[in-house]
Design brief:
This protein is mainly β and 126 residues long. Helices cover 0% and strands 52% of the residues. It is globular and about 45 Å long. It starts with a strand and ends in a 14-residue tail after the last strand. InterPro entries: WD40/YVTN_repeat-like_dom_sf, WD40_PAC1, WD40_repeat_CS, WD40_repeat_dom_sf, WD40_rpt.
């Protein structure tokens, strides 16, 4: 891929150009450590989640903030994007998986079942 996204304890997301090895965009809006990042299927945006209990969406071409997803009652430990790009999910300290519509930034639903933090998320390719 053209881009590499990194999240840091410095509360930022960096978008790196893999051809040059240089970071091109510093994405600043989190007010806590960034715990997880995940790209959209087409690479046009990246989601990030952190200890500020929020999920953000960033434009990869410009580094601009595209959306804020607010709902978690604790740290966001993991984010993932479906293969078709129609779902963004986040999980964390509140033991819940939150489902979001990345096209509208709307909350869709949440699901529970874990007795501890949700620390990882992954969609199947189908």
């Amino acid at each position: 891929g053209k881009w590499l996204a990194t999240g840091s304890t410095d509360e930022t997301v960096h978008l790196w150009n893999t051809a040059t090895g240089e970071w091109e965009h510093e994405c600043i809006d989190h007010s806590g450590k960034v715990q997880s990042v995940a790209f959209s299927h087409d690479g046009k945006w990246v989601a990030s989640g952190g200890t500020d209990s929020k999920v953000r969406m960033w434009d990869t071409a410009s580094g601009e903030l595209l959306g804020r997803y607010i709902g978690h009652s604790g740290y966001v430990c993991a984010v993932a994007v479906s293969a078709d790009g129609k779902l963004l999910v986040s999980g964390g300290e509140d033991k819940m998986v939150w489902f979001w519509d990345p096209a509208t930034s709307d909350y869709l639903r949440k699901s529970g079942g874990h007795t501890e933090y949700v620390s990882a998320l992954a969609f199947s390719a189908d």
